[in-house]
Amino acid sequence: MSVDKATVAKIASLARIRMTDESLERMVPELNGILDWVEQLGEVDTSGVEPMTAVIPNTLRLRADVIDADPLTGGGRRDAVLANAPAAEHGFFGVPKVIE
Amino acid sequence: MTDLTNLGIKAIRDGVAAGDFTAREVAEAFNAAVAGAAALNAFIVTTPDHALAAADAVDAARAKGEPLGTMAGVPIGMKDLFATRGVQTTAASHILEGFKPEYESTVSRNLWNAGAGMLGKLNLDQFAMGSSNETSYFGNVISPWRKEGSDAGMSPGGSSGGSSAAVAARIAPGATGTDTGGSIRQPAAFAGICGIKPTYGRCSRWGVVAFASSLDQAGPMARDVADCAIMLEAMAGFDPKDATSLDLPVPAWEAGLDADLRGKKVGIPREYRMDGTDAEILDSWERGKQWLRDAGAEIVDISLPHTKYALPAYYIIAPAEASSNLARYDGVRYGLRDLPEGAGLQDMYAATRAAGFGDEVKRRILIGTYVLSAGFYDAYYTQAQKVRALVARDFERAFAECDVILAPTTPTASFPLGSLNEDPLTMYLNDVFAVPASLAGLPAMNVPATINRDGLPLGLQLVGKPMDEQTVLNAGLAIEQRAGFAAKPEKWW
Questions:
Q1: What integer is the mean pLDDT of A12-35?
Q2: How many C-beta atoms surround the C-beta of residue B400 within 10 A?
Q3: Is residue A66 less than 8 Å (CB to CB) from chain B?
Q4: Whole-number Cα distances in Å, B33 to B109, B118, B122, B169
Q5: Are A8 and A1 in contact (CB under 8 A)?
């Protein structure tokens, strides 16, 4: 399978990355090179093989359903959470207006 | 007094504990070495005060007769992928420039608790994506090594290239690294130092900037095997904050070091003898076999039939996970925001990500987005996850016949910066021997073996069974004792 410029533009928009016409042109052969190369995985007979999701057997642990269970991550840390925000106002993350 | 920067982790810790010198003297010596090595571009920010404060705490504890930690008095470099409270953490990207975490990663916290201090944040390939340290927003790291008769800048490997350069140049006795598809082992091989990626889950990923979550694993990079054992012991441990953390006690790896390999079987995978592998690499592999035989091990041939498919599977799985992990960088909660005049929310996301990510990161996000998109998900992503299962099964079968696997770490020695840039695929091939163990989550280590005809280091790789870092370290020690690798780069910086 190979991608054309329109497909790369579609992927870039799905990935939320603005791309100029020139960078789209440049990306097409690069992505096709990589995709052609990974095509070889199609040679492998994987019938009856379960796709791997966890690399080392481990059980899923669940955190206790308790408010403020961890003093660092449990909540009530608004100022710390907002400390690195490019635009924080009135205790919230600020974003451009989304509703007229 | 001998120059303290010639000492490794164990020698510093033991010397501080014995009172041969103070932790402050060590920190001052390394701070000065760091300040004098700006030409390597190994650090993005330096934190001399952090190193001094940790040293003073160790000296004070010693004066009061309090017990000292296992890394007491050892100043280290911290790969800039670990969140460090109040200290800029960027993953070598523009999008996180100026980000000062309000929290400390578990691995760095563990190291400070063990008495270590921080010299600074080490440069790396942007978001750990790269094998040469040429994708950092803060410029390339230059290896302290040079080809004989040339002053061309060489690659320190990647992604942990700032770490490998700092340790090789003797401006840090040890450094943290992270390994997703070889990012500890390949730079360690290029720089002539040791580095171990433990079993997936040994070190907490909490507070580590994520690249590919099912693969990312932290580990130490240091001058020798014993130093790696000490530092890994300090870094590792169960962490309830990481759902993939292994709930197991940390073994006493340092105390368990033993180079007597009698009764052990070392597997040699026949598929790792690939076309295009440097003759000198193959030669060092042969010598590695001889060294392990000499240590009492039996050499056996093994087969890992899906080796050829590990790298293409990796370049589907890792970008897929990266495209998901890096979706959080959108200009809202932290980092860069690019808000063009009159732009809406979606335009702000797209502009911010266009300005904040480098080309290699964008390439991988696009590949990941493509292979996860409707219509291609099964053909690419599901197939890659099935191939990953087969790669892991190959190792499982091989470990029925041997205790540890010996292979080259890289197909070539280090290369000049800029020489492999035209084609991303050529660069990816540098991790061909490292990626299979990553896909299977296995502990794997680089140990320096020889110097090639250009005067550059070549490394050997040891891969162990899950949770069996001890056998990896012990086989590494056996090689280290016999290889007698003493070369270090000549100071030009």
A1: 95
A2: 7
A3: no
A4: 24, 14, 14, 9
A5: no
DSSP symbols for B87-142: B---TT-STTTT---SS--HHHHHHHHTT-EEEEEEP-SGGG--SSS---TT----
| Helix runs in B377-445, H state only | 377, 383-398, 424-428, 435-439
Which residues make Cβ contacts (< 8 Å) with residue B41, sequence separation at least 6?
Answer: B123, B138, B139, B140, B141, B142, B162
Q: Does B150 participate in catalysis according to the annotation?
A: no
Q: Mean pLDDT of all residues in chain B? A: 96
Encoding tokens for residue B212? 């590919």
Give the minimum alpha-carbon distance from A67 to chain B in angstroms, rounded to a whole number. 15
The pLDDT confidence band at residue B1, using thresholds 50, 70 and 90, is very low
Rounded Cα distance between B213 and B216, Å, is 5
Amino acid at position B179, single letter? D
CB contact under 8 A, A33 and B423: yes
Q: What does the pLDDT look like over B102-136, one tens digit per residue?
A: 999 999 999 999 999 999 999 999 999 999 999 99
DSSP-assigned letters across all residues of B177-203: EEESSSTTHHHHHHHT-EEEE-STTSS
0.95 cut: is pTM over it? yes
Instruction: Determine the length of chain A.
Output: 100
For every residue of B453-482, DSSP letters joined together read TTS-EEEEEEEE-TT-HHHHHHHHHHHHHH
The residue among B141, B89, B84 whose CA lies nearest residue B117 is B84
Cβ <8 Å between B335 and A86: yes
Respond yes or no: is residue B159 known to be catalytic. Answer: yes
Q: Is B312 close to A58, i.e. CB distance below 8 A? A: no
Q: Distance between CA A73 and CA B280 in Å, rounded?
A: 51
